[in-house]
Structure formats: C-alpha cells, structure tokens
Amino acid sequence: MSKINKEILKKAFVNLVTAKAMTEVYEENFKVVSKYVHATSRGHEVIQTAIGMHLQPQDYAFPYYRDDAMLLAIGMKPYELMLQILAKRDDPFSGGRTYYSHPSLRDDDKPKIPHQSSATGMQAIPATGVALGMWYKESEKLNNPKEEHPFVVCSLGDASVTEGEIAEAFQMAALKQLPILYLVQDNGWDISANEAETRAQNAFEYAAGFHGLEAVSIDGTDFEESYATLESVIHKIRTERRPFLVHAKVPLLNHHTSGVRMEWYRDDLEEAQSRDPYPKLKKLLLDGGFSEKELNSIETDALDQIKNSLTQALAAEDPRPEDLFTHDFAPTTITEETGTRAPKGAEKVVMVDCALFAIEELMAKHKECLLYGQDVGGRLGGVFREAATLAQKFGDNRVFNTPIQEAFIVGSTVGMSAVGLKPIVEVQFADYIWPGLNQLFTEVSRSCYLSNGKWPVSMILRVPIGAYGSGGPYHSSSVESVVTNIRGLKIAYPSNGADLKGLLKAAYYDPNPVVIFEHKGLYWSKVPGTKGATSVEPSEDYILPFGKAWVLQEIWPQEEEETLSIITYGMGVHWAYNASRELKMTDKIEIVDLRTLHPLDYETVFKSVKKCGKCLVVTEEPSENSFSRALQGRIQEECFQQLDAPVMVIGSENMPAIPLNSVLEQTMIPSTEKVKAKILELLNY
Questions:
Q1: How far is Cα 177 from Cα 172, in angstroms, rounded to an integer?
Q2: Which pLDDT band, with edges at 50, 70 and 90, does 476 fall under?
Q3: I need a labelling partner for 110 at 20 to 30 A (CA). Which of 171, 389, 524, 645 fits?
Q4: 357 or 266, which is more confident?
Q5: Beta strands 459-465 and 422-426: pairing type?
Q6: Rounded mean pLDDT of the chain?
Q7: pLDDT tens, residue by residue, 622-634
Q8: Coarse DSSP helix, strand, coil percentages of the chain, rounded to the nearest 5 percent
Q9: Average pLDDT for residues 431-445, to the nearest whole number?
Q10: If 0-12 CB within 10 Å is exposed, 13-18 middle and 19+ buried, where does residue 334 land?
C-alpha cells in the first residue's frame, strides 16, 4: 500500500490521464488545433500534477509553456485551456491574445498567475520579484497574518536555465533568502539541441554555485517521490522562508511544439518511452487497491470529457475586431492638473531635489512604496544624490541596493506590482538600460494587454539621461527612441523640477508602468543656460497628468510675420528658450514643452504648428530613425495645409557614440548656438 492516501492518488491519476487525453485528442485533430502553435505536458504530467496539488490560493505560480497538467491540477478545466489553444474570445487567460499554456489568472480560489511571456527563462525574474515582494511585506508587517505563508513556484524547462537572467534571479533569491521554489523540468532537450550540446551541467549542479539556494534532484516520473519531495520542500519554504530548486528528470513524449515534430530530429524516442510516467502511476494505483476496471473507467470518462470540450471550444466565438483595442493600459484617475504648483513663500530648488522630495512624500504616505537600484542605499543615496537620506528615513528594507543587474531591477517590478506594491526603481544611466530592455519589453509593457487587463504592472523606472560634463560613451546617451517604440509604457521627459515632481506623483497613482527620463545636466542647473530647470517646489498635493504639453512661450497669431513653433522636451527646452531670447524673437517663436513622450499631446502640438506655419523639432538624440523624425512626419501629415516650410529637426550628430573629449562632445550635441542657426534657416525659408 502506498504511503500516499488513495484520494490523493486518484486525484493525481485523473489529472494525468486528462492531460494525456488532451495530447492524444490534439494529435488526432492536428489540422484543426494546430492553427496556433501549442506544446503539451506529455511525459511531464507527474511532476506538474504533484506541484499543482500543493498550491494554495494565496500562492503565486509562474508556469512555463508545457505546464498544462499543472494548470489542470490547480483547478482549470480542459475546456478553458482549449479556448486558449484555439485563441477564442472567452479564453480566460488572454482573450485570444497569447499562446496555449501561457496563463494569467487572478481567481480567488486558485493560485495567482501573473502574466508572463513565452517563459524560456524570462519568467524567473518576475517570479523572484513576487518573492521579493513577499519578503518586503513580511518584513514591514504588511502581509495577511491570518493566512498560511504564501510562496512562489517558478517552473522552468532545463534548457532555459542557461539564460543569463536565470543567474540574476538565483543570485537575488539566495542573497535575500526569498520564499521561492524553482521547479526545473529536465527532459534533456532544447528544441533540436540536446543537453550534451548546450549545457555544461544540469540545473541541480548549477544551483550549487549559489550559496543559500538549496537544491534537490528527483525522478519527475515517480509520483510518490515527486509528491513527497515537494511536500517537504514547500513546508520548509513556507516556514523557513528560503529558496529551493527541485530538479526533476522527465521524458519528452510529444513534440517540442505542434510546429516542431519530434520525428524530425529525435533519436531517443524508444528510451524516452521507457520512462513514461503514465504506466508507473497506473501501477502505483493498482498496487494501492484500485481495480483495472475503475482506472479504465476514469480514463474513458477523461477522454469523453476532452472530446466534448473540444467540440464545444471549436464552436466558441472568436474575438471581435474591436477587441484588439482594449487593455493596452489600465484606466487611470489622474487626468487633470491638481494641487499647488508654486506655493507662496516656497523656495526655489534644483530639479534633483524636487524628485527627492516627491519620493520622500510618497514613501511617508504609502507603506507599499519602496525604492531600489544600484547605489541608492544609505551609504551613497544614488550617484546623483537623488535618493539621499531616504534609506536613513525609511529603512534598509524599503530603500536598498541591488547588484549590477538591470534585468532584475526592471523585471522584478512585475512581481512586486503583482503582490500590491509600488516599486520605484532606477538604472544609473540611460546607457545601462540595455540589459533591462528584455524585461521592459517582454514582461513589463505587455502584461496588461496580454492578461486582458488582469495584471497591469504598476511601477516607475527612473532613468538619468543625456550628455553632461564629458560623461563619455557610457554615461551620455539618449535612448528615448528605443523606449518610445515599446508600446504599453507611459514615458515622461520633464525639463524642470516642478514638472518632474508633478509627473512623479502622477506616475505613482497611475496603475501602469512609467519610465521617467531625467536629464543629468538639469539636475543641479550647473550647465550654463539651465537655471530655468530650478523651480519653486510644488506642494505635496501637486499632480501633473501625463499627456499635457506646456506652451511655455506663447505667441499670438501673426498673419503678416514669419513665426515659428518649436516642439521639444528635456534639455531641448532650454536650448530653444535661450536661442529665442538671444535672437530677441520671443514674440515670433512659440515653444511647446512636450513633458511626456507617451501619451503625447498632439492637440497642443498641432494647434501651435498650425498657428505659426513653421515648425522645428529640437532633440538631443541623433535625429536619424528617431522619435523626433517620427514626430516630424506626423506634424507634416496633420498640418500640411498650414505649413509655409518643411518641418525641420535638429538633434545630435549621427555618430555611434558620444566621445569623452569635451570638444568632441560639444561638436556632437546641439547647443543654443546651433538651435539659433536652425531657427534663422527655417524663418528665412
């Protein structure tokens, strides 16, 4: 008789044969169900069933694309999974937007599953972010004391463990001792490349290099071993609050995906079949007192259910064309400028302090607000002193240093947001954002849309940007064109401290991901001609909504005169403002400060351009293939009939990097003098 009771064994068998029947029915109806790519759990069913049976509603799960048996084990119905395989309108995960077994779930009675991408390693960072959020909530006593401690399971295929982002996740889990289980299902294959070609060691051996991450290796086809091991490991995670890795060896008994057939390249199919978990579990039940007839009946019922579910799913409604346009962003209540922008008697402060005071006010008011990144902790308070004193005021759990891990800094916010926190994170320089772009694009920006609105990511990413003081090629770049091409982000680029404070407040109360570019040369107004970046500090209640441009220098319509609208943002505002004054043309030049790059206030832009008849876009970025070129084209298209000259752009020279030498740096980037020359060229056109 098995050590595991009969009810658990029966439940496991029902789950396995249901998943197995789905695979078989999909194969029988291959031409119908393979319109969209899918993978199945065949060969992995036992370990997936075992983990699913241990999960509770307060837990968080990050399944990977082969985990349909896990989804069944937490209570999903075959019909619901089939709605996804057929990309139907009522697909409960994404409304027909994403692949089969790419779940996102927020049901009260099931584990929570935030959105994730195709889950070939990228999910480890958001999952670890959830565990980091649990750690923070417990340390600050924000957790629910009435429920058993939750934990996170991050499911991984063995091939994905070679990803660099896995190392970042393991490092932080071990460093902070986070309540997470990395469940690695090792079937020995990538797609057509096997483990001998691609891995120097398996995941169990790899985990040994991360001190504090305990690892166990098991036979993932043995239900008794899988269930008992996971029961023990999960109990330790719940009570001891530390990370584990379980490495489960399994065979892959079906195709990698419906689009990559196993018979094309596999030479181990006979050996893999010898490790099939199905006959092993069936024998376990027979030895445990179940009859052959009883088990055959379970299998027949499962097969009938799957066939009926497929018939029903095929008849379900497809998404409607209008469904394309929902849930790109979660709705925000921040739509109007509120509060006092310039309180009487308040002192002027530099831009960096406006940001610092905004975050201090937010942290004092909201315990769920926390700040992390490289060097923002108590010893330094940020390389620009943009976090000075915050760690001392709010503690090392709320304001802390991270390793040099831009991917983790960005991607962990997905998990932090999922447990109800509001992380404010930063990368030290815009040049350092590149390792974080995978997470920003794949996980952060798409979460709301691909989860059909269930999991918007509420976070703020601060990015010091721009050329200042011979920063050279690794501390001076402008990257807004890359980031504005990532749909699903809100993006600010303020030119002064008051705007920065108001936009930070708006970003905090917005349920969507926000990137704020903060020009280093404006932080202290040390660059000649940037005193305008200093501001009377707005009051604590001041909020500036996104998508509201500012006409900081407004002119009246002048039919008989040549007039010009300058559209700009960030440092460009100061070049334009100074140029108009030095030319003594403040009555001929209107200046529009965009303030936010997405949403962009096209209404104000077009109104200004149509009034003036000529337009110059000023940017610090190299202008070719850029955000500003796209804006130029949009203005040209919308305002063509009112234009008296082509819309022009001035930006940095189109060179690969900003050189260190100050002469070369100044030759590279725009300036007041260069903007003056461009203004005269355009006015004289």
A1: 8
A2: very high
A3: 171
A4: 357
A5: parallel
A6: 96
A7: 999 999 999 999 9
A8: 45, 15, 40
A9: 97
A10: middle
Q: Is 119 left (phi over 0), alpha (psi -120 to 50) or beta?
A: left
Tokens read off for 607: 């109104």
Catalytic residue among 475, 519, 574, 598: 475
Q: Where are the alpha helices (DSSP H) in 592-671?
A: 602-612, 627-639, 662-668
Q: Which three-class secondary structure state does DSSP give residue 12?
A: helix
Half-sphere exposure of 42 (CA within 13 A, CB side): 21
DSSP assignment of 515-579, as one string? Answer: EEEEEHHHHS--STT-GGG-EEPPPTT-B--TT--EEEE-----TTS--EEEEE-THHHHHHHHH
**Token representation of residue 67:** 């985990």
At residue 387, the pLDDT reads 87
Going by the DSSP 8-state scheme, the letter that residue 440 receives in this structure is I
Whether residue 503 contacts residue 510, with contact meaning beta carbons closer than 8 Å, is answered with no
Q: Cβ of 32: how many Cβ atoms within 10 Å?
A: 12
Q: Is 319 helix (H, G, I), strand (E, B) or coil?
A: coil
Cα(646)–Cα(657) distance, integer angstroms: 28
User: For residue 598, what are the CA distances in angstroms to 329, 368, 376, 487?
Assistant: 12, 26, 27, 9
- What is this structure's pTM? 0.96
Separation between Cα atoms, residue 316 and residue 601, nearest integer Å: 40
Residue 259 has a pLDDT of 83
Relative orientation angle of helices 78-85 and 6-28, to the nearest 10 degrees: 30
Reported as a single tens digit per residue, the pLDDT across 554-585 is 999 998 899 999 999 999 999 999 999 999 99
| Catalytic (active site) residue 475 | yes
Identify the pLDDT of residue 344: 94
pLDDT, tens digit, for every residue of 165-189? 999 999 999 999 999 999 999 999 8
Q: Are strands 490-492 and 596-598 parallel, antiparallel or unpaired?
A: antiparallel
Question: In angstroms, rounded to a whole number, what is the distance separating the alpha carbons of residues 474 and 569?
Answer: 22
Closest CA to 596 of 685, 670, 469, 503: 503
* pLDDT tens string 487-520: 999 999 999 999 999 999 999 999 999 999 999 9
Task: Starting at the earlier edge strand, list the strands of the sheet with 180-186.
Answer: 60-62, 152-157, 180-186, 244-249, 214-219
Q: Whole-angstrom Cα distance, residue 194 to residue 295?
A: 35
Residue 429: what residue type?
F
pLDDT attached to residue 1: 36
Type of residue at 322: E
